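Q: Convert this sequence to structure tokens.
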Amino acid sequence: MQAAILLAAIALTATPEHLHWTVDDTKREALVYAPRGKTTEPAPLVFVFHGHGGSSKNADRSFHLEDVWPEAIVVYPQGLNTPTRIDPQGKRPGWQISAGAQDDRDLKLFDDMLATIKEKYRVDENRIYATGHSNGAIFTYLLWSTHPDLFAAVAPSSAPRGQVELSKPLPVFHVAGVQDRIAPFALQQATLADVRKLNGCSDKGTEWAPGCTSYPSKAGTPLVAFIHPGGHVFPKEAPALIVRFFQEHARDVAADSRPR
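A:
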């Protein structure tokens, strides 16, 4: 009996596939989790980007979205060494923070990953999402900017939008710590104000979950702000809240087809 239980537990344990790409002669990689069990339905697709100095494995341990949302395809890409304000020599891995930076190597990787995942798995085109922490959050904002008609929602954590210009409303779940010294809370508050304005959100928020305030939008593009008392960290409660938010939002194809 114990052996049978052990085998069942092993069978239910998610195991990632290591996928590889060559982008401008540079080898790139990602950990990819496919939905568990047999299904004929197209699956949601979530891209998760680690922070500067992190890794795909670190992001997997922190977000573990494949555990929270086993019906989804979850992709954890690996960044390359990238110069930043706190790492000017670029000794640690991260992501470009603006269009054109590093010859758009990470935007090219994203496009290649998306094409491969669509070829390899059945993807629900109306349920594609991106999330990330710190430098990965800025890249999430950049993806929203450069792929305005792709995502159903995004969930940046612990970063302002930086130099990224946003033009199309999108449901957003943003995580911020009031004691953040790396991505100052005041800068993140400014980003939240910009998002509320772009999304046409109400200035009055309501509780969506403990610590989370929802700013509704008549256009169906709300902002939920998860403000926690800590610093530059990814709270343990965040994965389940992000998944809940993503599950509440699918891309509005009818709205995308309307003239702007």
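Helices lie at 2-12, 56-63, 65-68, 105-120, 135-146, 185-199, 238-247, 253-257.
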